[in-house]
Amino acid sequence: MAMMAAAATTAFAQDALVKEAKKLFAANDLDQAAAKLAPALTSAETKDKAEAWNLMNEIKYKIYQEQFNKVMLRQPFDTTRMVNALIDAFKAAEQCEKYDSQPNEKGKLKIRFRKANSQRYIADRQWIYNGGIFMYQNHNTKEAIKAWSTYIDSYKSPLFQEFVPMPADTLLPDAAYNSALLAYQDKDYDTAKKYADVAASYPDKKDDAINMKLFIQKETLQTKADSAAYLATLKELHKAQPEKEQYFNLLQEYYGRANDIEAMKAWALEETKLDASNKMAWALLGEAEMNAEHWDAAIDAFKKAVELDPTWVACVFNTGICYNSKAIALNDELMDKKTMGLTDANAEKVKNVLRDAKVYLEKARELDPNHEQTNWVYPLYRIYYALKDKAKMAEMEALDPSLKE
Known about the structure:
Distance between the termini: 108 Å
Helix content: over 70%
Number of helices: 18
Structural class: mainly alpha
Number of strands: 0
Order of helices and strands: HHHHHHHHHHHHHHHHHH
Oligomer: single chain
């Protein structure tokens, strides 16, 4: 009996809170009404949860209305209070719907609040979206995301089940993409991915949303499996849209960071087979072969790039450097180990390769006369030295007096 009495007392106390909150609401003491009502919303002893939550809906909505009226009258208003009140009101209405749509203790279902609440928020739902704009303009990123995410999630709210199918929502794609973008900038990648997925389902946001998901994937790489999944996504996107340079550039960045020459080489070779006119693929293949000290293969790849773009000074220069490196390697190979010298015939073989190097390095000089992109002065000087061209050596020394030392 004592336990039953205590339970009855507790239940009475919770229902008393609801009554007190109603009085405060009627007196327009809205903040006090909300504070008084709050414990009853989560208490299992509250007899009518639907009514309690609907009261909170009414309290918060009136707070929102007071601020909104100031907006309409062009009076000073509290942006945060207005937007959060509307969001809280809507969420309270959803909780009201949750309990209102359940059978009572007698097993009977009587919907009391849905019609009024669904009509209210189907009309005012846009102001939740506008609230996100208000918050964004006030540089409150988290509150903007809160507003827009509420707007997005509300589209499929049980509160609107009588409106299924919902009218087409032209604001939802922007809300989804904006939420994803702000969350991404805040490094909240779970939220960013959630709303990027929503945005990707709309044609006008699809490409941007897919790119964002890709960058989210890139920023959250932790394991080998993550890297493999990211690489697979990149390759799939590049294959589907080869005309978009960004995917190729991201693949280049990925292989560059991996510092795996063989993987870079295999991918670059694959790209040249897919599109022989892709000068960047030939350049990357040249770099991979150059790093592996495969001079002939590197020269062939760089020459392909130069054929496609004769003014690409970096590839012109690299071709000359590879020829020069090939000459050094050939010199070491042909050198007599006893005399540490070359026969006349072998010396001529080395000079022939150096002459090829000279052609490309002089072309680099022509394209980049102030050597701002490539440092052709020293390698050209060494070639002129080996070929005993004193006049040209003097030209290089004039450009770089330290060469005389």
